[in-house]
Amino acid sequence: KAGVAVREGVPAQAQAVSIEQAALPGKEMTEVEVTFAIDPGEFWCHSYVGRTALAPVMEALKAHCESPAARPFRKVQAGALCGAKYSVDGEWYRGRLERAAGSGRASVYF
Description:
single chain; two-stranded antiparallel sheet; 6 strands; four-stranded antiparallel β-sheet; globular; 17% helix
């Protein structure tokens, strides 16, 4: 399992974006990017629709999380939103804290 570094809060630009699960269109074709796959029946993807709107949010998240104003969580509270640095690619992502994992670490849902 990859490690993560988490930071409290998210930048204002990211807070303005609601986080909700989107449904794919019924019988229509749509372009997606597969972001993670376990097998052909279980995978995660992002729609290309609105993709350009996500780039500035992710840049603002990275800038916030790498700034001196960002600080690590002192107490992990399940369900809190955070910026999480994925150890595999070194990039910052939006995350939700799931639970404390000991030694100042946390389990994060990306």
